[in-house]
Structure formats: structure tokens, C-alpha cells
Amino acid sequence: MNIFAHQSLGQRLLFGTGRASEHLAAEVARMQAKRVMVIAGSFELPMAQEVAKSIEVALWHTDVVMHVPVETANAAREAAEDSQIDLIVCIGGGSTTGLAKAVALTTGLPIVAIPTTYAGSEATNVWGLTEESIKRTGVDEVVLPRTVIYDAELTMSLPLELSVASGLNGIAHCVDSLWGPRADPINQVFAEEGIRSLSKGLRLISDHTQSVPGREEALLGAYLSAVSFASAGSGLHHKLCHVLGGTFDLPHAQTHATVLPYVAAFNLPKAPQAAERMARAFGSDDALQGLLDLRRILEAPKALSDYGFTESGIDRAVELTLTAVPANNPRQANTENLTALLRAALRGDDPKTLLELED
Ligand code: NAD
User: Fold this and answer.
1) What integer is the mean pLDDT of 235-244?
2) Could you give the count of Cα atoms lying within 13 Å of 344 in the half-sphere of its Cβ?
3) Ligand 1: which residue has its CA nearest to atom 38?
4) DSSP codes joined into one string, 95-122
């Protein structure tokens, strides 16, 4: 019997290559905003200035730091209050969106998010803040951007390596949603379609980084991935990557991209329905093989050792992850099998070795 409760998040979405500036002006007018704060990292600033050329900006804020340190958040909150801001516009990757969410969390200000990576934060109600090296996350409707504006032109400058890592971060949202704590037949449809779009988009981008259809497909996939993830919640993959990012300071997208095939190999033998959806989305007879084939084409990140993780961190990472693994994870996680998973990911071993794990 299928019994579930599904919550959809209310958000407006405007999609159009080359239309970000026009769409932003229309949204600012529709929301009757008079005092707009634009948040964009210094790298994204020229792009943001171009997008915001047709609106009046009361405050530019460029102090963006990955994982949103609480000091950075407080400075942005104060700046917004001092300037009597009534709308935040964020233009950038997940770090930029994360800062806008931190401001919204305490001020209640609405956000218009204009993403430039495939991280997907723009379509979730999840916020994250880092204090004394500990990253806390939470869920609050107030941080969900009111409107998302997708424009593939803004992603053209994303180098291939970062596009691949970020896109695989999106695929990880989808895969983890297939067995997340609130996985249901609705968010699983989004997850499956998200894998299909991201996988198609990334293939096109790896052939030609300036491919408009590739970039559009990847953005659409990023949105679907985030909607499925926000709805299904964090599964084993996100719990593990949260520990690796928060406690060991590993880079976000690359960590997700590296760990995904290992979590997939760990769970798939115990999750036949997820395996069926994944295989279908990859256009493969086998879910794990479909993911591995895509990763080979994309020359995806392979080993956590390439990002500074070492054998000495495994015990602590396993200990922290074990306290957070959802009870409904398809395979019962324990110290032994999580250690095997992390050791394989550290070295970049063939993920298929985990298919042999015993319970
Ligand atoms: P990021 O925002 O830190 O960007 C990575 C790098 O790419 C930065 O150097 C940035 O300047 C650069 N960049 C961004 N857009 C670019 C472009 N178009 N061209 C060239 N360079 C560009 O990384 P990210 O992976 O987008 O986001 C990671 C952060 O987002 C993490 O803190 C993660 O926890 C958070 N996140 C949150 C959620 C959520 O639901 N709350 C979801 C996903 C990610």
C-alpha cells in the first residue's frame, strides 16, 4: 500500500536564455520593490551588473564566502537593514544563494535568485550557516526564493571541470531523493527526470562547453534535482557529504561528484525500484553502469584523496555519518560497511567492489 504526504513548495520560475535582465526587471516591478540589494561574489560581479542594468540597485554586496560563515551573514544582514532593503537579488552559485538565504532567515526579506551553477540551492527551503567550523543547516519557508530566473548564458563561463562537478552534484540530489527519508512517487518522478536532463545536458556540454541546448538542459535538470531533494530530504549521500564538507572542509561539488558512485553501489542492491528509475533515466540496462558510463565520458572527479581527504579522517567521518543516516536507508549502515565505502572513495577504487558488501 502506498501511503504518503507530499508538500510542494510555492515558487515562481522564469526560464529563458539571454532573458535574465528583462525577467529581473519584470519581477522587481511585479513585486513593487523599491530598495534592491544585489548579492554577487566578486567573480560574478560583472555578470551581475549586466543582469541588473535595467533595475535600480540600492546596495551591492560582494562579500560571498563558501558555506556562509556566520560573520559574513551578520555583515550582510546589517548592510541590508542599514539600507532599508525590501528585496534581495542573488546572482551566483550556491554560496551566493546561501548568503541571500541567511539574510532572509533573520530579516524575512524576499529573494529573487539567479543561479550560475547547477547546485540547486535556489529551489530549496534549506539554509546553511557555518560557525566555528561547524556547518548547521535548517529548513525554513522564509528562505525559499520567491522567484528563480534561469538564463543559460550566465552559465557559459562555468569551466568544464566545474560544470561536471556541479552537474553531478545535481545528479546526486536526484539519486539521494530516490531513497531519502520522505521519498514518494511524486518527488521520485522529479528525481528521475532530473537525472535524465542533467545527464543529457552534461554530455552536450562536454562535447561543446558553449552548447546552449546543453546548458539549458542542465539548468532544467538542476531545478528538478533541487525540487526532488527539497521534498525527499537528505539521504545517506548528503549526510556523508555534509560531514566531509563541514568537518573536513572538502569542496562541495567535487565531493558530491566523487562520493556518488560509492553511495549508489552501496544502496542500489537493496533498492530495486530506485535502480529501475536510475537505469531508465541513464538509458542503461543497469543503474550503476549508467552512472559510471556517464562519469567516464565526463572525466568526473575520482578520489577524495585528490581533495585533501586522508585515511586518518575515515574513523571520525564514519562516526559522524552514522549518527545521521536516515532510518529508511536501503542498506543498514554500520561502522564496517561505511568504512569500506569511504576507503573506496578515498582511493578512487572501482565502485563495483562495494556491490559485494555483506550485511
Ligand atoms: P559556489 O557558489 O561556491 O561556486 C563555486 C565556484 O564557481 C566559485 O569560485 C564561483 O565564483 C564560481 N562560479 C559560479 N558561477 C560561475 C560561472 N557562471 N562561471 C564561472 N565561475 C562561476 O559553489 P556551488 O557548488 O554552486 O555551491 C556550493 C554551496 O551551495 C555550498 O555551500 C553548498 O552547501 C550550498 N548548497 C546549498 C543547497 C541548499 O539547498 N541549501 C543546495 C546545494 C548547494
Assistant:
1) 96
2) 23
3) 121
4) HHHHHHHHHHHHH---EEEEESSS--GG
Q: So what's the pLDDT on residue 23?
A: 98
In what helix (H) or strand (E) does residue 35 lie, and over which residues does it extend? none
Instruction: At 24, list the grid cell.
Output: 529581473
pLDDT tens digit sequence for 110-139: 999 999 999 999 999 999 999 887 888 999
CB 93 less than 6 A from any atom of ligand 1: yes
**CB of 158 closer than 6 angstroms to any ligand 1 atom:** yes
Q: Which atom of ligand 1 is nearest to the CA of 101?
A: 41
Tell me, in angstroms, the distance from the centre of ligand 1 to residue 65's CA.
10
Contact 241, 255 (CB under 8 A): yes
Report whether pLDDT(1) > 70.
Answer: no
What is d(CA 234, CA 343) in angstroms, rounded to the nearest whole number? Answer: 22
- Residues 282, 251: Cα–Cα separation, whole Å: 26
Cell numbers at 156, concatenated? 557559459
Q: Is 170 in the pocket of ligand 1 (CB under 6 A)?
A: no
Q: Extract the C-alpha cell encoding 201.
A: 545536458
Q: Is the CB of 255 under 6 A from ligand 1?
A: no
- Mean pLDDT, rounded, of the chain: 96
